[in-house]
Amino acid sequence: MTSPKVLAGVAHDVAAHAGSGMSFLSPHLAEALRSGGIETTSVELLEVSPYPAGAPERESLRRSLQALHTTTVSVLRKHGFELSDVRSIRLHVTPVPWDDSGFMVHTRVVITAANGRTYDSGWLE
Fold first, then answer.
1. Which residue among 37, 84, 111, 120 sits deepest, i.e. has the most Cβ atoms within 10 Å of its Cβ?
2. Which of 112, 87, 109, 113 is nearest to 25 (CA)?
């Protein structure tokens, strides 16, 4: 296994990707959260089909989150880790309140390693 310290970089890479237009989460996530009256959410990216609890079902968001799961596993493996090396990869997302379009979101990823240590990307804009 690669040095666990590298998991901090994995967390940052996944959070940056999730907040970028390449993940296609925006504006689907913000629209679903706002229509459900939810200000912020988190999803477990180790799940094959992650979806925010309480958010109305949107196929476009479901597909984007499934693709993000696949990308997350790819980033993890690119850095020399296997799924057994981590317990959790949790994405936290908050749409920015001043962007009605839903394209701007704050993202944060917290990875819990198999040994229980956590690696946090911090909030990214």
1. 111
2. 109
